[in-house]
Amino acid sequence: MTKPISKYPVPKLEELPEDIRGRMLEVQQKAGFIPNVFLTLAHRPEEFRAFFAYHDALMLRNSGLSKAEREMIVVATSARNQCPYCVIAHGAVLRIYAKDPQIADQVAIHHGKADLTPRQKAMLDFACKLARTPEAVTPADHETLRAHGFSEEDIWDIGAITGLFALSNRMAHLIEMRANDEFYLMGRVPPPPK
Amino acid sequence: MTKPISKYPVPKLEELPEDIRGRMLEVQQKAGFIPNVFLTLAHRPEEFRAFFAYHDALMLRNSGLSKAEREMIVVATSARNQCPYCVIAHGAVLRIYAKDPQIADQVAIHHGKADLTPRQKAMLDFACKLARTPEAVTPADHETLRAHGFSEEDIWDIGAITGLFALSNRMAHLIEMRANDEFYLMGRVPPPPK
Amino acid sequence: MTKPISKYPVPKLEELPEDIRGRMLEVQQKAGFIPNVFLTLAHRPEEFRAFFAYHDALMLRNSGLSKAEREMIVVATSARNQCPYCVIAHGAVLRIYAKDPQIADQVAIHHGKADLTPRQKAMLDFACKLARTPEAVTPADHETLRAHGFSEEDIWDIGAITGLFALSNRMAHLIEMRANDEFYLMGRVPPPPK
Amino acid sequence: MTKPISKYPVPKLEELPEDIRGRMLEVQQKAGFIPNVFLTLAHRPEEFRAFFAYHDALMLRNSGLSKAEREMIVVATSARNQCPYCVIAHGAVLRIYAKDPQIADQVAIHHGKADLTPRQKAMLDFACKLARTPEAVTPADHETLRAHGFSEEDIWDIGAITGLFALSNRMAHLIEMRANDEFYLMGRVPPPPK
Amino acid sequence: MTKPISKYPVPKLEELPEDIRGRMLEVQQKAGFIPNVFLTLAHRPEEFRAFFAYHDALMLRNSGLSKAEREMIVVATSARNQCPYCVIAHGAVLRIYAKDPQIADQVAIHHGKADLTPRQKAMLDFACKLARTPEAVTPADHETLRAHGFSEEDIWDIGAITGLFALSNRMAHLIEMRANDEFYLMGRVPPPPK
Amino acid sequence: MTKPISKYPVPKLEELPEDIRGRMLEVQQKAGFIPNVFLTLAHRPEEFRAFFAYHDALMLRNSGLSKAEREMIVVATSARNQCPYCVIAHGAVLRIYAKDPQIADQVAIHHGKADLTPRQKAMLDFACKLARTPEAVTPADHETLRAHGFSEEDIWDIGAITGLFALSNRMAHLIEMRANDEFYLMGRVPPPPK
After folding, report:
1. Given CB atoms, is C156 within the 8 Å cutoff of chain D?
2. Which of E163, C91, D27 is nearest to F51 (CA)?
3. ipTM of the complex
4. What is the tens place of the pLDDT at every residue in E124-147?
């Protein structure tokens, strides 16, 4: 398909700074393709580096939240922001981390009615409130999370992931970032034998 | 005053990694104090570095937007998100860059009724829409900006600054970041003679 | 899986009136399984008959709207109402009618950013407005649809399908209707050989 | 008055299928006039039959809700949807069933401030929430109704009536259905002697 | 009926200052009863005087708006604020001034679908926008009114009446002001012969 | 600066009725300048008199609310209504009454995060709810205020001040009332020696 993946120019791999091209080849190695978020954000290398540094700091760190839970936050808040790229791409990642082919669709439609634990629902209630009406978050919301067993550092993680994808959703809407075809089926069926 | 500046632990300068402490001392040199956003976000050094790298990439780059215009975006969108730190701190910066003691209050209350050019109002209409209802931005909104003389790269700047402060506002709400007393009067009266 | 498919009692096939059981066996024959909407609404046979009579009158009639377009209306408005059953089940039907494995996810997330024609986007703009704020629909909205080539009868179809699923979404939320596992993958991969 | 009662063609009684004409003559016998919902929806006989079958199944069944209570649901939710036909016509029916000339106006304006029992207010709180934000209904809302003495079947009735008039309000807005003059005064003054 | 007409103490006529009692007797003479807004606001005589001075200045002055049009503004904006007292009492006055038994119900439900001229609908669009989201009114809204033939002074009247009833609706909600029984039927049937 | 202070004609002092001119000279004596609300509303002397009579009745009376608390209500609700004149002018008055140079900015941005007592936050929660969604105020909200020690008369004061500035904000938006330059700095720095 030849639909544009961004409103903005998309740099060619060979034109990119070494570190950025390296990162792309690494993810291509692992995933089998380069997610369009890499290609499209590379239009601005400095912002690219800052974005992925922030991303890795939050999504790869040791945390009281599992990797699947972190992706749930991305999917739930991006769905409330109606961001096609982030829901489709991170929905795929969530299916894989959770090893559950149904969870991403459920979370995207309505996390409160998804097959989640009460703890996870509380986490996503908080994240969606912070995502859509940040001014409405109160100390009582922190206490609700504490009552579900989240530590203060876990709450930072929930909030910061929500914040980072508040940025990411806005960039994706701004540049009309298109999701790769590969994401739609990832985690829904067993991967093809290598 | 001894009101806490964050819900989270605030590291001491001497405990911080060299690069982060250096950055703080530099800003202190220039401004006369360390804005609390530096002290409070330093609780997580990696995220600190990514945040300020993103910030500098956007706020210091050559752009079709003046520095005052970039601060207007921060003040207007942070006001819609009701973020005390960002409105007070960036309101001060806006007053200084714009050399106008009234502009920040006007923009925070209602940018549509502020003493701005039609071009600036269009810029802030776009930013506030992206800030509060990112899903509602359409290609027609880009065209409106183009008709006001903004280039595609300028529009990226408007959107990305809005996105970065979408993140920043959420962090500030999350950790209950408190604005330094110094900001309230900055740019309202002539600075004291040195 | 043994998760309940309704908050209310679900009648057994053998307990059901002949006409209702017949309908279920027919759909089972065709689809390979009985969608839960049949099983769960059968708790009230008279309402069941009225609902499906309405459904068939709208979804099976000759119309200026293709069957895929009618399902788009269901998916888009049900997504705005965050109705898990209707988005998942009708998303599957949409994929099959449209012969497009991506369309349902795109429409559910944001029909304005989906791979649709301007005519289809106008149709879904109207449907979503009627779904969420029916009081806001004006004669000008009808004229917009006419300008896209919709006849008055087509507009009735758009409105009535939106209305029927306004009812359906509310019933599904009310009884916590659960989507069958089969829907998640339908229309995403070629059907297994029979 | 000769104001149109629908944007769509209104069939003449003599052109209508026997069963539909029969139904109209029956209601005319009883009420003294044919409510416009019959005349206007008859433009599509199959949908007409389904709509009134659904209506009768809910509004005429034995229920834990009185007929007046069922009409309250119609009036309250139709008022939130700002539907002229349904508020005016069902307001009349509510006045008659409740034998109270003030109740319909009160419920249409603000059910929470009407002369109702706490049980009735809880019923209408639930109905209005389901009517306007169906995604927001939670199991806790069901429990609130149970605490007011509603059975599970009563709750189905509340929800289904709300759902049916979600459909009805949208049809009435779509076709600009006009209320009969007769409704305005019904139930406000003693009926004229026959 | 002995339902309370206010949450606050209601002064007895004989306890009231002369000017306030005089005003009440005058209205009683004319209307046949004392509207509860007089009795209930008299709890605070100074505010009573200011309120009715404002009321008279706007509702009795020579204006490009007819008295019926001024009452339409009250009914439409009070309905959006869901204020029982103001909708019921001013609905009665509107029926009488407009000599139209249907107009008040229509305006209260949805002014955009009422039997009004385009000029009147534009007036009420402006009033309802100012009533619910005053910050959203722009110079373009003034121009729309000018194009419908309203003078600048007429626009002041529209805005000021909207403003005064913004105050009045809030007072009525605050004190749970109850409408007199007499209002419900006023203007719906010919007045009884004297 | 020669920016207009109103969309409407502003009368000259010498053209004004004696009582109105007198009031203006009195305030000028005290404040050093005539706030624009006096000059601009004087376009309609009768409404001017009613407005300031109402204002004085509420703002000067003996009340359980301090003068600073009354101004907080004005600032908080006017900020939610995004009214430049009222936020800037009453922000100045609030700073002076509260002898606190930071409080007005904090309250305007987000009263829930301002340096206030829980009692004051409860007062402003109530006021902002009444200001923006008056229909949502319930008896439970009164009870919350009572639990914070407010008397019934205090609650009337809170509600009536909110109501008066609901009117005032709408007038200021309507006529594009501009704040005097003097307000921006009042209460932020010690007054100049006389």
Report:
1. yes
2. E163
3. 0.96
4. 999 999 999 999 999 999 999 999
